[in-house]
Amino acid sequence: MIGNAEEVLHKYYGYETFKKHQKEVIESILSGRDTLAIMPTGGGKSICYQIPAVLFKGVTIVISPLISLMKDQVDNISELGIRASYINSSISQQEILSIFSDLRNGKVKILYVAPERLDSPEFYQLMKTIEVSQVAVDEAHCVSQWGHDFRISYTHICKFIENFSKRPVVTAFTATATEEVREDIVNQIKLKKEAVFISGFDRENLKISCLKTGNKLQYLLNYVKTNEAQSGIIYASTRKEVDNIYEKLKANDLSVTRYHAGLPDRDRKINQEDFVYDKANIIVATNAFGMGIDKSNVRYVIHYNMPGNIESYYQEIGRAGRDGESSECILMFSAQDVITQKYLIEMSIQSPERRINEYKKLQHMIDFVHYNGCLRKFILNYFGEEVNYNQCDNCSNCINSGEYVDKTLDAQKVISCVYRMKREFGVNMIVDVLRGSSQKKVLHYGFNKLSTYGIMKDYSKEALSNFINTIIAHKYITLKEGEYPTVVLNAQSIKVLKGEEKVILKESVKANKITAHNDLFEILRNLRREIALEESIPPYMVFSDATLKELSIRYPIDSNQILDISGVGDLKLKKYGERFLNIIKKYIEENKIEPNWSFKGSITSKSERKNDKPKTHHITINMLRDNMGIKEIAKKRQLTLSTILTHITKYFEEENVMDINIKFEELFTYSEEREVLKVIDKVGISKLKPIKELLPDSINYDKIRAIIVKNYILKEVVK
Ligand code: ADP
């Protein structure tokens, strides 16, 4: 089965190998098991339900809340040659009837629907009359009220599934990893005997930076200008801030658009499309923007303000670099951000229980901003993932060239001040005391008489507040959560105070230009834009940045070679191959480049299937992939069964994977297999003759060989 899945991956998507966990998830779905897959944004969730959809007999229904993006998703897979449709509120009754008819006539493999559709009696009725093999719930965290995007219509999914006379495989996908949300998904959708896959949350290609710069706008402007030709998202927490930044960038002649809930629907739609279609390089937006944005070539995500929790932050930066290319994520922090986030919690959340929960999440976010260790590790640990390194070398704290500074003395001053203040206060009050403020409140408590009063005057108010927050993030002191969090001492604080533990911290960074591409990349990008315009599809649907990059480095000049490039499948070759090849050939000629081509060369690569001289055992393997039996192959290739078995063994020794379904049952019966295994138990497998001698004549050497391959060689490798 998984062999077929790989075939679909090559043929339709043009990808060489599965990404992390895709294979296991697909295997689980293909085996008919309910499956919940938790993968980070950009982890490749769609392929996990799309490939089974192609391989299953009936239709796959995908429930997705992303109405505005359904068209894109459907266009995207139709581009690859997979028959797909969608039904949501933007579709007329006439069109719906025509889709219903296509569904009845088996002309649709994948149907995307908005969850609201599950309330329609006509839709229920139709579902009873067609074969539905899979119901895939995309963005499954919307079913949970603990998630950050709860949707009431998602609670009807369970009833919808129960309506089928033959229950389809139910699959659910999300990027939200917290345990309570995960459990809620399983319970609410009523998954049965589900397999749960949690992919590593690390997105290695994302460089994560956190800045506490004084002049944010100036920094932003510099950054965006330096990376003018790249696609980027700038998030700000309020509409007003979005408008300000937008105006500023516009005034600087940058290619920019904006998105927030205050704009009319039509403008939002146009602006989003301008960004997706590369007509505007930059989009400034509130967090209303981005859910389900599939644009794969976003090279940077800047948070002009700190988001309210790590979940949202990670989801938002996840929109950068979906194509796997290096991308940059910069969070610009200022103390005002905390006040804004608290205000948003107060305004938007009624339930006291949920409010406390949100404050808790906000505190983790604040800790992150002030953390001086590896930022990636901080996030991964937050999502419950253990990492075995201390430095990722791709976050601002790890690559910061600034020196480590011994801040023990300053930390002792803070701790000692907290100790002397006796009562619990927030960070601001401590800052005031340490800086010697003569504010009423300070004098009222008599803090001006403390020995620590005014001992940190050399710090600005903001710098001192940052410093205190940093030592909180590093757990040298503790912040008690709540609307007005207060600072208290802990066991670490005492150690620092006694001089038993040192406080060593690092300073912040500047961000540079993102990786420069070569000339050919730019030329290919222009061609991509041209084709996208002609076809009215977003450029990344023609080819991703990663594909363009590979083209611009490897210089393929014929169709076999271009098929060896990741992201080029059969249909894309047919549609765009020639135009890209012509441009590459021209570039090579003009620049007198002599490409030194070599195929990536794995057996599963498309190139080898079409290449001149594949190795003999690879020919056998390809025939097995085409679902031929061992006997049939032996006959066609005029080889003995024993040779074919040797080919299989060789392949598994090379690849160390079991990805082809071999039909051994045509070679021996179950009882013969038992008999042979019993004898092997006695005499071992090192020699065939002693095995043969203990068996009846009807069990010949080929049968024994095949049983050994199945039970020992393959199992050995599969382990
Ligand atoms: P998610 O929904 O998890 O955020 P997508 O399904 O949109 O992620 O996939 C992210 C990107 O990765 C897309 O551009 C997709 O085409 C690409 N992708 C998915 N699977 C593979 C693969 N096996 N090899 C290379 N690229 C892949």
From TrEMBL:
Q: Name one GO cellular component term.
A: bacterial nucleoid
Q: Which Gene3D superfamilies match?
A: ATP-dependent DNA helicase RecQ (1.10.10.1390), HRDC domain (1.10.150.80), P-loop containing nucleotide triphosphate hydrolases (3.40.50.300), Winged helix-like DNA-binding domain superfamily/Winged helix DNA-binding domain (1.10.10.10)
From the UniProt record, give one GO term of the biological process aspect.
SOS response
Cofactor requirements of the protein: Zn(2+); Mg(2+)
Listed transmembrane segments? none
Please list the residue ranges annotated as the Helicase ATP-binding domain: 26-195
Q: Which reaction does it catalyse?
A: Couples ATP hydrolysis with the unwinding of duplex DNA by translocating in the 3'-5' direction
Key words of the record: ATP-binding, DNA damage, DNA recombination, DNA repair, DNA-binding, Helicase, Hydrolase, Isomerase, Metal-binding, Nucleotide-binding, Zinc
Tell me the GO molecular function terms. 3'-5' DNA helicase activity; ATP binding; DNA binding; four-way junction helicase activity; hydrolase activity; metal ion binding
Q: Helicase C-terminal domain location, by residue?
A: 216-367
Highest taxon above the source species: Bacteria
Q: SMART domains attached here?
A: DEXDc, HELICc, HRDC, RQC
UniProt cross-references to SUPFAM superfamilies, sorted A to Z: HRDC-like (SSF47819), P-loop containing nucleoside triphosphate hydrolases (SSF52540), Winged helix' DNA-binding domain (SSF46785)
HRDC domain boundaries? 514-594
Q: What is its EC number?
A: 5.6.2.4
Which family would the database say this protein is a member of?
Belongs to the helicase family. RecQ subfamily.
Q: Provide the protein name.
A: DNA helicase RecQ
Organism this protein belongs to: Clostridium kluyveri (strain ATCC 8527 / DSM 555 / NBRC 12016 / NCIMB 10680 / K1)
Q: Which gene encodes it?
A: recQ
